[in-house]
Amino acid sequence: MRAAIVEFVQRRGLGVRARPLVDGLDLVGSEYVGRLPSRRLRDLIARRVLGVRLHPNAQLYRWTELRRGRNITIGAGSIVGSRATLDGRLGITLGEHVNLSSEVAIYTQQHDPQSPSFAAVGGPVTIGDRAWVSSRVTVLPGVTIGAGAVVAAGAIVTADVAPYAIVGGIPARVIGERTRELEYEFAKSDAAWFA
Asked: How confident is the model at residue 91, as a pLDDT?
């Protein structure tokens, strides 16, 4: 469907003026797809219609919002928990065996409060292999969370997190260090079809 809309916009020469329309349809479509009760169907639509680069072994549970899915890459064995918000406008990359718990929100663009014109600023978000971002964490634009790092529940991540660091709070600060000898791998779950 998205391809048909983009083709229509290009044929009509609407270009940049139609960008908000295409993005709006993407967002509305992704919100409905995110609520479908079948994970297989959600994964299929996420890949083929929304353009998410979702490894076949990754698990994408029901989401709340997915912006510009074509700018989102989810690596092997990674899990995106229920009711996640993934703002792919400037790019999100999840490594392998990453765990994003329920209600995580990742943003790649926001407004600059110091800008006289309230300009948008941002950058891509990257989360390294075997990182764990716990429930209700907010990750702000341009942040890199290193391999094996842990972000405690409810934290707001405003700056890069070093590999294997454990951070928590608002804004997130180092509160510990994780073992570097991680061996686990998440396998595709046999959870209920409606997960």
From this structure: 97
What is the token pair recorded at 46? Answer: 């996420």
Three-class secondary structure of residue 109 per DSSP: strand
Residue recorded with tokens 């686990």: 184
3-state secondary structure (DSSP) of residue 150: strand
Domains in the chain, please, with CATH?
Answer: 52-177 (2.160.10.10)
Q: What residue type is 103 in one-letter code?
A: E
The Cα 3–Cα 143 span in angstroms is: 30
pLDDT in tens, 146-173: 999 999 999 999 999 999 999 999 999 9
- For the question of residue 111 being annotated catalytic, the response is yes
What is d(CA 187, CA 105) in angstroms, rounded to the nearest whole number? 24
Contacts of 122 by beta carbon, 8 Å cutoff, 6+ apart? 89, 90, 107, 108, 109, 110, 141, 142
Active-site residue, selected from the candidate residues 111, 115, 160, 174:
111
The strand order across the sheet containing 92-94 reads 53-54, 72-74, 92-94, 125-127, 144-145
CB count in 10 Å sphere of residue 183: 6
DSSP 75: -
Identify the CA nearest to 143 among candidates 135, 153, 155, 58: 155
On whether the pTM is more than 0.70, the answer is yes
Cα–Cα distances in angstroms (integers) from residue 135 to residues 59, 71, 85, 149, 183, in the given order: 16, 23, 12, 14, 22
